[in-house]
């Protein structure tokens, strides 16, 4: 369940940053900096994040 939450956080932050970059770019440090870091991971590692999302969806739909 934790991996699902992390993947959703990464994907959501990357999507929000694509729509409104200034919203996440102004908070690069501190507690809200976690969202900026998740957006960076989602942008730079997007093929790996996409594969993880597909694997997680498959495991939720067919294994559990």
Automatic annotation (TrEMBL):
Q: Which residues form the signal peptide?
A: 1-18
The record ties this protein, via Pfam families, to: DUF1242 (PF06842)
KW Transmembrane helix (keyword) present: yes
Keyword Translocase appears in the UniProt entry: no
Domain of life of the organism encoding this protein: Eukaryota
| Key words of the record | Golgi apparatus, Membrane, Signal, Transmembrane, Transmembrane helix
Please provide one cellular component term from the Gene Ontology annotations of this protein.
Golgi membrane
Q: What parts of the sequence cross the membrane?
A: 46-63
Q: How is this protein positioned relative to the membrane? A: Single-pass type I membrane protein
Where does it mainly reside? Golgi
Subcellular location(s) of the protein: Golgi apparatus membrane
Q: Which PANTHER family match?
A: PROTEIN KISH-A
Family under the similarity heading: Belongs to the KISH family.
Function statement:
Involved in the early part of the secretory pathway.
The name under which this protein is listed is: Protein kish
